[in-house]
User: Fold this.
Amino acid sequence: MPDHANSDSPAVQAQLDRLAALSPGRDTLGLERITALCARLGNPQDRLPPVFHVAGTNGKGSTCAFLRASVEAAGLTAHVYTSPHLVRFNERIRVAGKLITDDALAALLAEVLNHAEGLGPSFFEVTTAAAFLAFSRAPADACIIEVGLGGRLDATNIIAKPAVCGIASLGIDHEAFLLAPEAGIDPAMAPLDRIAFEKAGIAKAETPLVCQKYAPSMLQQVAAQAMRAGAILIDRGADWDATVYDGRLHYRDAAGKISLPLPRMAGPHQADNAALAIAMLRHQSALDVSESAMAAAMEWAKWPARLQRLGPGFLTAHLPPLAGIWLDGGHNMDAGLALEKHFHDVPDASVHLVIGMLANKDPAAIIAPILPKLASIHAVPVRGHDHHGPDAFAAATGGLPVTAAIDAAAALAAIVPKRSDSILITGSLYLAGEVLKLNGEEPT
Assistant:
């Protein structure tokens, strides 16, 4: 079933079983089905609180987390829609700050599916429609919506008038969808330029489109999409910027400069994600979020399985004291580079890698950037999905042996680290969800 969509609630599971049986459209992009489905539901996407719409390859979920933390630190409430979930399907839909209840989720899925006859909506389209219904019926001050895949043809892109749109870091991912030939699109367009074109497809008329810093040809595609839509491009490096020095995040735009604490979330890349959230907040007019609220968000923001340091639990109880046991759902080159930057800051320590990756992902994307730091590699399966075996990882290690393990618990039990070492579990958000559940750290 897509995205390990299962539930301990019989009522929710009954609707997820209905959802899994839908066809066609499970693995396709396009706005026709979601538009028709939402029309049958009374167009709930047109009755949402002010929307913060976030696209990107890496960092969009963390940006959403910083947005939510800022809104809540200002004493306001936010609906949040993100994907995929890690442990429970409910994680995708947060209503006024709280995960949706099983009863509410079951009723919403049933309502959407009852209106879906003959449309063949995808798994994600049904989930998106359910989220829009939930958010249209509950009061909140803001609505934070993460793009599922791409942007231009993503189901969330039927929101006509967001308060602000943002584009996080861009890289190659989901090539089968985002780089697929399409009439009207130059087949000679460079892959990263096409990714930028797709992500910037969330641009809307008279709406700020806040972007990170990209290569000139990529920015050209973003700017072209903004111009086509009549959006207001807010470009990092021109209209806003941020940098880290003296242990602070320093941000500036036309309205002035602010200095904030560094994010509590691990990894130097989180400063960029936080800066994008700040830029989005400062370039919209629907909400008043103070500098003090943004400062508090640097400490409050959490985003599970993104360089998350695991706490005491079933998986970690038997391990000796370590520099850290880290969990990350990264699975592409940008994620690998972020991991390299994180572990580069501990120059004398080695890293023991526990990795599981889907078969359509490149093992070298994660292993190559951190290979000089690795002391051992243990390959584990990604249950319920086609995944790489040990041989695929061995091809990317330059001779470092790869040991097969039946699961993350077995891999951790086989590691003999020094006190200064770290352990990294990575390669898949599905694996990350399994680890969080086993360690008793399910998202709440």
